[in-house]
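B., you asked whether I could sanity-check this one before it goes into the benchmark set. Here's the sequence:
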Amino acid sequence: METVDTLWKQVQPDEQGLVPCVAQDLRTRAVLMVAWVSKEALAATLSSGYATYWSRSRQELWEKGASSGNRQRIVHVRLDCDGDTLLYLVEAGLPACHTGTDTCFHWRWSGPVWARDPVALQDHSSREVIDALDTVLDLRAQTPAPKKPSYTRTLLDAGLEKQVAKIEEETGELIEALGNESDDRVISECADVLFHVAVALKGRRLALRSVIEELDRRFGTSGLEEKARRKPTAPSE
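And here's what the prediction gave me:
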């Protein structure tokens, strides 16, 4: 609670001890909802790692998605410049709205009326997913390890030898899947390899997005030319 006491000193709550909190989706950066947070709700959020708010109607704490399963896993908690609004950047289970829409902002101004116009957030570009993964890995690497560290944090703390061993293990499983298993299994094993590569890169303070940028750079270049470009030059005689 000491940590929350320190943090809350910089917050400017209203007369009821509450501040509005914006929930933003990590991958799409869309605003999902706005709710209220008390000091106790912030403490619960930081303790559990999942977005918790204060219900003004029920006068109680509520963890988003506790009953529906559409929880909001915290990536960052931010405070605005005036100290009177919080932002939860979250890995969100969708839909976020109790009406069944991905965001609560499903009414759009249309002339003299509000027209219902839900925004679908289910489709994400590959670049958004890569950026989101890098953001989460940054968080795991930079924040103090909790009492029960995540799998990612365990790998980061284990060091390069363990990270390389996991890449070798997952690569072997991918090779096996390519030869003998279903397409779904191949995709799953390939995703495992990429994840463990991303963790090892983070251990080197590199980002997976840098690999994607390198692939972008290579478009329009022959693979043979690319290899020749990287081939060591023989010493002159």
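One thing to flag: Strands lie at 19-25, 31-37, 52-55, 60-63, 72-79, 86-92, 107-110, 113-116. Otherwise nothing jumped out at me.
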